[in-house]
Amino acid sequence: MDHYYTIERQSTAEFKDRGSRFIAYAFPVSDAESFKKQLQALKKEHGKAVHHCFAYRLGFAGDQFRANDDGEPSGSAGKPILGQIDSKKLTNVGIVVVRYFGGSLLGVPGLINAYKTASTLALQTVPIIQKPVMSDIELQFEYNQLNDIMVVLKQCHCVVVKQDLGLFSTLHFQVPRHREEEVVYRVGELRNVEIKKILPSR
Questions:
Q1: Are 90 and 128 in contact (CB under 8 A)?
Q2: How many angstroms separate the CA atoms of 55 and 79, rounded?
Q3: Average pLDDT of the residues in 59-63
Q4: Are 137 and 172 in contact (CB under 8 A)?
Q5: Where would I find the beta strands (DSSP E) of the chain?
Q6: For residues 22 and 91, is the Cβ–Cβ distance under 8 A?
Q7: Strand pairing partners for 164?
Q8: CB 68 within 8 A of CB 92
Q9: Cα separation, 52 vs 39, whole angstroms
Q10: How confident is the model at residue 200 (pLDDT cuts 50, 70, 90)?
Q11: Residue 116: left if φ>0, alpha if ψ -120 to 50, beta else—which one?
C-alpha cells in the first residue's frame, strides 16, 4: 500500500432530533495522543453537553481504532461514528459528536441514526485527500555532503523531520514508500554517507 485516504482539515456539522442537538467534529489526526487533546478541548468547549461520543481510526493500514459511547446505550454512538469513517475508507481521522439532550428519549435506533447522520454530514463538508505512505530514514554524513543529499530528497518529495548539522551531521527524513528504494540507492552512492537506520513506517 503506497497511499491512504484522509480528510484535509477539520469540519463541523449539526443534526437535530426531537430537541436533542448532535454536533459532530471531524478532524485529521496522526496518533491517539493528538486525538485525546482534541477530545479534551471539545469537552472543555462543550462542558454542558451530556455526552461526548467518539471514534477514530489510525495508521496507514487502518489497524488502530477505538469507539466510545460515553454513557449512551452500548453500540448506539461510537460504532455508528466509526462506521462512517470506514464507509469512506479513511484513516488518520477522528470524529467527536457532542450531544445536548433535548428532553425526549430517542431509543437505540434513534441514537444510531443521529450519531451516524451527524458524522456523515461532517465528512461531507470536507475534502477527502490521498496522501502517500511515508517511511522514516536516518542518515549520518559529513557536512560537505549536505547539498548533494538535499538534491535527492527534494527530487523525491521527502520531508525533513529533524536535523543535527555539524562537521558530522545527522538527518531524519520521511520518504514516500514507493520511492524509498530509489532514495536509499541514490543516497548510498554518495561518498561519506551512511544510512544509519531505517525506522518503522508510521
A1: yes
A2: 7
A3: 86
A4: yes
A5: 3-7, 11-17, 20-28, 51-58, 64-68, 93-100, 128-132, 134-142, 159-164, 168-176, 193-199
A6: no
A7: 170
A8: no
A9: 8
A10: low
A11: alpha
Considering the domain delimited by 3-130, tell me its CATH architecture.
2-Layer Sandwich (3.30)
What does the CA dihedral 133, 135, 141, 143 come to, rounded to 10 degrees? 30
Number of Cβ atoms within 10 Å of the Cβ of 200: 6
> To 10 degrees, the CA torsion angle through 4, 7, 9, 14?
-160
Residues written for the chain: 202
The CATH fold of domain 133-199? Alpha-Beta Plaits (3.30.70)
Q: Largest alpha-carbon pair distance within the chain?
A: 72
| Domains in the chain: boundaries | 3-130, 133-199
User: Using an 8 Å Cβ cutoff, are 57 and 88 in contact?
Assistant: no
The pTM of this model reads 0.84
What band does 110 get if pLDDT is binned at 50, 70 and 90?
Answer: very high
Centroid of chain to Cα 27: 8
